[in-house]
């Protein structure tokens, strides 16, 4: 019998929720199914904050992530990660911060091969990329502080959301904004139902699935306010800088 675990976000009781095959991938949403691996991955659900996670994978050493998830076949189950997504995100950022870029020192956190940052440099941004998986030799305290950090499709991949927040906290300036994307699980994940949500995909490394309440709890733990620009794009901040004020007039739905 599987035991309950403590939720890493709110310390509430997390119960075994469901089990899926390791090869369940986000591409199932596009009608592409991988052959089952035969490896069972259990997801747990916190009944207090709604955080849903795969504890076994969260405990993997980083080499195992490289071998089993972020390997040469990763592109097959996340075909947009190399080019399309960074290109689209760069175009979107350059649009929403049009005319404000001179005020921005930008870091793309978890930016893989740096495509997003490279594209933004093409729009004359002061931008750099840092990926904890690829830049193990970089000490993040050497990077300095940034007033805009983006983290696209990062939160659902991390085995330890508290460690991620500590890293972001050490990189963001006091009047900075962290803009990140992750889909909220409110609705798709409910107690006493099967875990059918396409985003709950171990093969993609989606091991930390956030509800609105769990994101709010995580943000508050690190003294951030949180707002959402859309159902999948969120902002963390303490003080709204002038150059980002326009975002808050249109967004800020979570509070
Ligand atoms: Zn919780």
Task: Give the total of domains.
Answer: 1
Q: How much helical structure, as a percent, in the residues? A: 10-25%
Which architecture name does CATH use? Answer: 3-Layer(aba) Sandwich
Along the chain, the helix and strand elements come as EEEEHHHHEHEEHEEHEEH
The overall average pLDDT, rounded, is 94
Q: List low-confidence stretches.
A: 251-255
Question: Major β-sheet, in short?
Answer: 6 strands, mixed
The H-level CATH homologous superfamily, spelled out, is: Vaccinia Virus protein VP39
Total beta-strand segments: 11
Q: What class, by secondary structure content? A: alpha/beta
Rounded Rg: 18 Å
Find the CATH topology.
Rossmann fold
Small molecules bound: zinc ion
Strand content: 15-25%
Termini gap: 39 Å
What is the 3D shape?
A: globular
Q: Just give the CATH class.
A: Alpha Beta
Tally of helical segments: 8
Strands of the widest sheet, in order across it, are 6-5-7-8-11-10
Give the SSE map.
Blueprint: E1 5-6, E2 13-21, E3 40-46, E4 52-53, H1 55-58, H2 62-68, H3 74-77, H4 84-96, E5 105-109, H5 115-121, E6 126-130, E7 146-152, H6 161-171, E8 172-181, E9 208-209, H7 212-221, E10 225-228, E11 233-237, H8 245-250
Parallel strand pairs: 5-6, 5-7, 7-8
Antiparallel strand pairs: 1-2, 2-3, 3-4, 4-9, 8-11, 10-11
Residues 7, 9-10, 12, 46, 48-49, 51, 214 line the site of zinc ion (ZN).
